[in-house]
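ugh ok so i messed up the first submission bc i forgot one of the chains. this is the corrected input, ALL of the components this time, i swear. 895 residues overall. if the numbers dont match what u have on ur side tell me asap before i send this to the collaborators (the ones from the other lab, u know who)
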Amino acid sequence: MFQIVLRRLVMSVPLVFVVTFLTFLLNSLAPGDLAQTILGADGTREQYEALRVEMGLDRPLVMQYIGWLGHTLQGDLGLSYFTKESVSSLVNARLGVSLSIMAGVLLICASVGVLLGVASALRGGWVGRAIDTLSLLGLIFPSFWLALVLISVFAVWLQWLPATGYVMFSDSPAEWFASLVLPVVSVALYSITSIAKQTRDSMNEVMGRDYIRALRACGLPESSVVWKHGLRNAALPVVTVLGLVMVAAISGTVFVERVFVLPGLGSLAVSAALNKDILLLQGVTLYFTLMTIAINLMVDLSYSWLNPKVRVS
Amino acid sequence: MSYVSRLFKRPLAVLALAWLVCLVLGAVLAVHIAPYDPLDQDLLAIKQWPSSEHWLGTDALGRDVLSRVLFGLAPTVAGVLEAVLIASCMGLSLGLTAGYFGGAWDRWVQQYVSLVQSLPNILIMLAVLAVFGQTMLPAMVTLGVLGSAGISRVIRSVTLAVREDLYIAAARICGMSDAYIITRHVVPRVVGPVIVQMSMFAAVSVIVQTGISFLGLGEPPPAPTWGGMIFEASASLNDFPWLLVPSGCVVALTILSFGLLGDSLRDASTEQWSRPSQRRRIQARRAVRPTDLPTGQVLSLRDVVITTGEGEHTRTLVHKVNLDLAPGETLGIVGESGSGKTLTSLSLMGLLPAGTQVASGTLVMGDQVIDLTNEASLSRLRGNTIGMIFQEPMAALDPCFTVGYQLAEVVRLRGSWSEAALQAKVIELLEQVKIPNAKEVAARYPHQISGGMAQRVGIARALASEPQVLLADEPTTALDVTVQAEILELLRSLSQSRHMAVILVTHDWGVVADLCDRAMVLRHGHVLESAQVLDLFQRPQHPYTQALLAANPHSATPGQVLPTVDDALMNLQGVNVQGGSA
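and heres the new structure output, hopefully the right one now
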């Protein structure tokens, strides 16, 4: 088990380098350079040269990258060009919001999505059609548009939930929960149907297997055949899709945090992009990449937990 | 091209195509057909509902919504074209070369694909937008590069399959150049999947493009973009939610059209196939005890009819089969593949495969008379008075749980057990089927034991409920010869020591001779003959039985062609061997 974790971690190291280096590379491809962008048209030649040296832009690209890497390993992600604050503290302050949304999405998908999928595998009929319709809606309407519709129905019209804003858990757990309901639902709406469809397909496949027939022949109650043996065997592909859905949910948070004005990593990334705050964007990218790696690692771990062939050997 | 004509037979695909053509026309002609300038503000007519002057109403600054939608078309169409063009060109060339040449290049391409697919794509897009400023072109180019990964993966797998085809090998042997083979023979085969992938990716690019302008990272306002319009709508959610409708609907219709087009293209390129129909529910009748029952039977079947299909497509697979089983008796059901022997045995467990159903039939077990069409009452017999073992012993065990767990599960169904007693019972069951070091085996998973061992576990599981009847569906077919003999010996000793009746479904005369007291010959769902095994071997009555016995490979002369049932039947000319109307 420990070896699996270790091997996956080692294998994901290149991903971190590639992503962060790619961002650096993009940076150097930009027309003009950052020092110029920051100074604007008013800057003098001397100011420009001084800023370049200060920011390390006069060094070769690879040296800049190695420098950034060295600082990063010590937990220092540099200063935001725009606000002059430490990138690490900016990013850390906003991590909680994004993680809360992701956790909510995971919770809803893993429970509601799987339940719907099993229901439609067993009952077919209207549950299946409802899932198909819902997934069509989720596919054709962009998530931010659906989020706006949810706001106008549940916040403006019914006034059940707040339209925008975030309340810290430590301030008021109830309001924290209320502020997260609509964002989580609008990200999860699309993901639930992917999970439900995958669950339905793999349940349909597993329920036709010989061992299911054998278990029934032994007289096991149908509930145990479906929920224990059926679902357990159907779980592997579902977990794969769950991983993909959670990586996609990272993109989802970028839009949803914008719509609901939540102070998370996604909205930080957007404002960094708007302000051309490259170091800040680099920091957020690093965090999101680490999140992706963590998701993939969890998928791998659940594989080995779910599949005895991996676990034992 | 039949492919295109098939596509045009689908009304939805035609509608989708029509909408997309309108979009392109609208993008080109926007200047001429838009009723207003998209930037013209009329502060006296803000937030108006649709009217004859403003077909889609006006926005918060009094601008005509329809005109803004029309002018938003051009950037959308251009962006989608850029992204799709790059993604399909890159995806096609990467996928084709990786699939065709394989080797190191293939491994590099696959590395690239898995790297891109594990990246949070939105962040790469944000970084590009941050670096290149708020213009769409670099963003859509990046999207195309990222999207090429998914396309190339699909193309690669199609190419891999095509490469294995004989005519490609033949072309290579004839000395044709790789470039010629790819363009002449491989590309035509991957065109279908490429078009499907392109239309799916086009739907994605519409979403991404709208998303970028929604975030304010595209063309800066007041330029009319669809995403920007959704953002503007969000500002008037409180008093004028109508603005969400036109902007959301054009986006949704466009994405839907690309999706529908992709779906129809895929369907048109694959052959039609029909799914097996769901099992039909037949109204269960009140079971009446048949009058012609011989006395002292442990189990009897009367008039079992099994059918498949519905309505006029109904075909009868098993015709009015009768069966009697005395206590302690071992009955063989013999027949070729498709003779209905397995279906008959599964029907009395209520476990027929989907698509087949019992049309009529009665099961009598002691005092119980059960209508076979009533699956609910049959399920009470399972794991109670009837046990069953299967042809593929490994496939009959759930791979996710240990052998011991699966046995304990069945034991626990009968009475309450303490954990220690449960373990002891599991070990006892395993020892009954002669498994050495049972304790160790109980802790193993199915993939850690051999096929013969798995069949022993299957037998142990069937015995857990102390059944009066054991149903064995070709229990030794999947095992090698020495293991077969051991399993047969085990079945014999268990049936004798427990006075348990066994129904053995098989096509192997050797097994019948070895184990059975009586045998029943089935063909095309009809019982042709039923007799004591000794009589059957020495004086087969039905010509088909004679033919089937003659086709036994064990009695063939070495060096001669093996006899088949058909050969033997040919030698018995002039006899009606059809055995009924099937």
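quick check: Residues 271-280, 574-582 of chain B have pLDDT under 50 and may be disordered. that seems consistent at least. Chain B touches chain A through 72 residues (CB under 8 Å).
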